[in-house]
Design a protein that fits this description.
- With 264 residues, this protein is an alpha/beta fold.
- It has two domains: 116 residues, no CATH class; 112 residues, 3-Layer(aba) Sandwich (Rossmann fold), CATH 3.40.50.11810.
- It is built from 13 helices and eight strands.
- A four-stranded parallel beta sheet has the order 2-1-3-4, sandwiched between helices.
- β7, α12 and β8 form a beta-alpha-beta unit.
- α5 packs antiparallel against α6, α7 packs across α9 and α11 crosses α12.
- The longest helix has 17 residues.
- The N and C termini lie far apart (40 Å).
Length: 264
């Protein structure tokens, strides 16, 4: 492991675990913590609930604000807030300041803006902030990578995961056609428009299979659970994993979908 900063510099990083990771795939949280520690940081996990994204996207500003206030307070003493999810990190970075209009609530807006400025998606943090170089990590197989919408479009996370994956021994990255297209999950989108969502994820699965990969990787668990379920239902012989599990060398756990009951 090597990082760009002085090894004696250990920023205090608050790990925002995310609801889906906490409830369905806690191993992703442990993998994220391992990677952040390898990047020379101290990891803390403050008390937390939802980031408020479902409420915010549904127009429920009152509950979104209440959740945002909890996050802002609980992570106030962290040098960074890091999430293994572009959607949660994007909510805090891009939308929290909008929940507290500066003209009406200048102090609350300032707190939200300050936290937003310290919030990073996991892979962007590891590469852009810490310059992490992996050592001794191996994954034997061909993978393809799905660029989740919020990470890609809100936070410009694209090259960072690929840079890290190129450092994993035994791993071959095979890009699939349309890797930057939405998988159809979109939080509440898949609930409001199930037929459209199903068509979108089916198209993605066909392209994943055509890539020749045996494993689909991504940085957002919502996308991965959506993809894993459809891969199973349509009979594709592909696994799905969060990219942090591979980068941390923590792939002993069953693939996503097997343990969560999404297979078959």
């Amino acid at each position: 492991m090597s990082v760009s900063d002085d090894p004696g510099d250990r920023p205090r990083v608050g790990l925002f675990v995310t609801c889906l990771v906490d409830l369905f795939r806690p191993g992703v949280g442990f993998a994220a913590a391992t990677l952040i520690e390898q990047a020379g940081c101290e990891v803390v996990v403050p008390e937390q609930t939802c980031c408020g994204q479902p409420a915010y996207n549904s127009g429920d500003r009152r509950d979104a604000r209440a959740l945002a206030e909890q996050v802002i307070a609980n992570f106030s003493d962290c040098d960074y807030v890091v999430a293994p999810s572009g959607s949660c990190a994007g909510t805090i970075r891009e939308h929290y300041p909008r929940l507290f209009p500066e003209a009406e609530e200048p102090e609350a807006h300032a707190r939200a803006t300050a936290l937003a400025a310290r919030t990073r998606e996991l892979l962007a943090f590891l590469v852009d902030e810490r310059g992490l170089e992996l050592e001794g990590v191996r994954f034997d197989g061909t993978v393809t990578y799905h660029d989740a919408c919020a990470g890609l479009r809100e936070l410009h996370v694209r090259e960072q995961p690929r840079r890290l994956l190129r450092q994993v021994a035994g791993l071959t990255l095979s890009e699939s056609e349309g890797c930057e297209e939405c998988c159809g999950f979109g939080g509440t989108f898949c609930v409001k428009y199930p037929e459209i969502s199903t068509r979108m994820v089916s198209d993605k699965c066909r392209r994943f299979a055509a890539s020749g990969a045996g494993t689909v990787l991504a940085g957002d668990l919502g996308c991965l659970m959506n993809i894993a379920g459809r891969l199973s239902r349509e009979g594709y012989d592909l696994n799905a994993r969060h990219v942090a599990e591979v980068l941390a060398g923590m792939t002993d756990a069953p693939a996503i979908g097997e343990a969560e009951g999404l297979q078959g």
